[in-house]
What we know:
By secondary structure, this protein is α+β, with helices and mostly antiparallel strands.
Amino acid sequence: MCGIVGLFLKDASLEPELGGLLTSMLVTMTDRGPDSAGIAIYGDEVAGRMKLVVQSDTPDVSFAGLDAALGAAMGAAVTMSVKSTHAVLSIPAGSLLSARAALAAIDPGLRVMSRGAALEIYKEVGLPRDVAARFDIAGMSGTHGIGHTRMATESAVTTMGAHPFNTGDDQCLVHNGSLSNHNSLRRKLRREGIHIETENDTEVGAAYLTWQMQNGASLGEALQSSLDDLDGFFTFVVGTKDGFGVVRDPIACKPAVMAETDQYVAFGSEYRALVDLPGIETARVWEPEPATVYFWRHDKAPTSQKAA
């Protein structure tokens, strides 16, 4: 049992409140998963730059001079901002592979949480309230974001096992459920060149969507394909740089509720995650249907598609 939340803003005036709204939603889901928590925020972009978020269990040591060391190794300008056990490194766009190689040489203990022009992921072991507070998530602004609080059932309680999972530029996923064919699919995706860090089934789900989108599928098309290729019980909430998607497996035994107003689209594992959102009393509220893909993009109208 885990708790999922998501918020996709249609009204730009709410962007300064995104972090606070997501934090409140996630904390409400604490009893669905007190082991670890994480939030992905899609915020500001800087032209020609990419954000690489890394984590360390010894941040005072690992982050001391990391920006200078990475910049020297890459031969490029690197800046850094530190939030507790995470650091956001700003690197030149298109330099991910060289940055990963340099980081592995500088400090093999560093773990990459996310990469992308707009995406920042913060996750750690602990209660949602504590995790959100240590990274000051409530003070962050952005266009959309997703969050997860975990009750581990199949793997250890670790930072790397926490959600969201990021396997492609500006793409991340949170999941409630269990995938039964993740081992065989992980081997296939690794052969296809998709980088997968852990043995967690959710990361395989994220990597599958990354693979589909790298081969030309839209987010909606990738989610539609997941209904055929992924076995098990799942509710997915996915973020991309400009999109937000939801899909439930054909049986749909994992709880889910959505709400939409002129200002936002929101997702929660339970309705109580949504009750403090502005205007919720007049929102259209519904339970997403089984085997139906819902997705929104900032440059396109909302879409839903039910599997045949």
